[in-house]
Structure formats: C-alpha cells, structure tokens
Amino acid sequence: MRETIQxxxxxYHKDLIKIRxxxxxxxxxxFQEKKTGKFIAAQxxxxxxxxxxxxxxxxxxxxxxxxxxxxxxxxxxxxxxALPIQETNKVPYRSKRPGIMHACxxxxxxxxxxxxxxxxxxIKDQFGGTIKLIFQPGEEQLPGGASIMIxxxxxxxxxxxxIFGQHVHPPLAAGKVGFCPGMYMASADELFLKVKGKGGHxxxxxxxVDPILITAHLITALQQVVSRMSNPTVPSVLTFxxxxxxxxxxxxITDEVNLQGTFRTMNEKWRKEAHRKxxxxxxxxxxxxxxxxxxxxxxxxxxxxxxxxxxLNAKDHAIEYLGKKxxxxxxIRMTSExxxxxxxxxxxxxxxLGTGNKARGITAPVHTSNFDVDEKSLETGSGLMAWLAxxxxxx
Length: 395
Prior knowledge:
The protein is α/β, with parallel strands linked by helices and 395 residues long. It has helices at residues 2-11, 13-25, 34-47, 106-122, 145-151, 211-222, 224-227, 268-288, 308-322, 340-343, 376-392; strands at residues 50-55, 59-65, 68-79, 128-136, 162-173, 177-179, 182-185, 189-196, 200-201, 236-245, 252-253, 256-265, 292-298, 304-306, 327-329, 348-356.
C-alpha cells in the first residue's frame, strides 16, 4: 500500500504543479474565495468524488468511501484563502491579482489535498473507512472559516473521530515534515486600545493630560500581565505593533492615542483571566494619570492542541513513509491557526510540511512578498497525507 501511494504521488506530481500554479496566479482573500471554491469542486467532479460546495459560502466538503469493511471516519483539512500582499517574485506563475498573494502556502495545502483525494479515490477498493475532505475558506481572518464550518456541521454527518492538517514550513527542506505533540500553537486575540487625554501646547504640559505619556506607561505596565501575573509554565506573549495619535506635533500635545496589538497564550482559563487583568490595569492606570482608556479585545482562535497519541502515531507513520531522517520534532510556537477550532472539538494532528530549498534560494518566510516553495513538497504533501489517512483508519 505504501509503495502504491508513493508511486501514485510521483505520477501525479506534474499535474499538481499545474494546479498549484493556477491557484497561485489566481489568489482570493479570506471569505472571497468564490472562484477558488468552484475550481476545487470542478477538480473533484473530474475525479468522480462526491462533494458539496457552499459550506461557509466558499468551502468544499468531499467524501471518499473505502470499499472494505471499516466504520472509522477521519477528516483531512486544507485552507484555501490568500493574503493582502503584493507579490515581488519574478516567476512565470506569480500572482495576477495586484495586492493579493498566496504568501502563506494555502495554494500548496489545497493542491496537496486534491492530490491526496486523487490517490485515495484510485485505491479506495484497497481500504475501509470514510475520509472527509475539508477545503476551508477564511483561515486568515477572524472568526476563522473553521469556526463557521463547524457551526454549519462539517464535523457531523458523518462525524470524523480524528482530523489532520498540514502547513508549509520554509525552514524545513522539501521532502521533510515536522511534528509537535501536545500544545503546539497559541490562541490569538486582537487588542485595540484607545487612550484619551487633554491636548494643548507642548510647552505647557501642566495644562494638559498627555495621552502619549499615559500610553508609554501603559505599554510598560501591561507587560506585567505576562512577566509577573501569569504562571511561568504557560507561554504567553503581549505585543503592540501599531501606535498612532490623532494629531500632535513637536510642540502640540494630542488628545488621543490609538494602539493595536495581540495577546497570545496556551491556556484557555488563563486567557480569560488575562483579559480581565488587562482591562483592569488599562482603566486604573489611565485614570490615575488623569486620563482615560478603553480596551477592546477581539477574541480570536483558541490554542492548537495536537492530540498526543494521535500525533505520536502520525509521526511513526510518517517515518514509515518518508524514513526517519526526513521526520523531525518541532518546538511550540506562538503563531496561531484556526485549525485550533477543530482540535478543540475532536482529536487533531497539525504538522509541518517542508517547502524550503537553500540551494535554490527558496528560504523566504511565510507572509512575505517573496515567499515561494520548492514544488517537490507537493509530492510529499499529497502522498504523506494519503498514507496518514490510511493508517489512521486502521488499514
């Protein structure tokens, strides 16, 4: 079975490159993936695979039924949206859409899952069980397409017992994959802080309430939530990435300062407690300095929990398929992923697909204008996911 999957993945590789390049040239932003969804549905129809188009508007859900006796059900997921980034790569398949680019590798995820679908459909007489394929919109934008698809019943009828997802990883060479059992990726909340004071002449601060000074104290003081108020065994990050005032000059104190930031952690109970501490500190500190402050917290994705037994088994199965030298252990990371919504509902395994190639200069990180992949990764991504599915079903 393993050799059959490997041969099929290799034989479909050229077709997958064409599909990936088409998707890369025609990216669509989160929750706007109308043409992408139609393209995926058309590909599945060509394969003769049962599917439905329209979950969360642009999502596609397909079913492959093994023909041997087996009641197990698993799900495989790929995200399909792109980012608002202008591509700077000088390649024939660069984005045709100004200001939009597949800079996070979702074109690779989608293509790989289409390749997996083709493999599994070809060998469905050789395994038992049900495989649900989830092509999900809106991973890059709150509330996340995963949460919407779950609300619309993607984890029901039939209900998968486990779910797998993969994500490109430029630091890892193409042909390799990485796993991290347990806590893997952080929750992500967006912070919008408005600090108000009383403006006036910069030479007469005694007649003003300086919101910039209040902001400076807040930025420093709020780090206490991470460095002094949290359990040191629970990773947490608080970052403000944008500060802007509504006026001001060298000799003018403004009335208002606005900040945007993110809070991330890996414990849902602490996450809620941290929100209360942030709100309390913001309100009280600003008031003590004569001003006021309002903190809006947009609650984002939960932390991503890789089910330990499932992930350890998947790692072993990856070693069976790729060899031990091509499977690595990965550390936890404070980035976030809406696959976490699935991992909070059923046992999940979210692993990394190597896409880098230092010799060819393919090293740019995700979310950058020159991100690209070694397309050898498409063969690995499609074949390995098919193998993981077969092994997870117990075949």
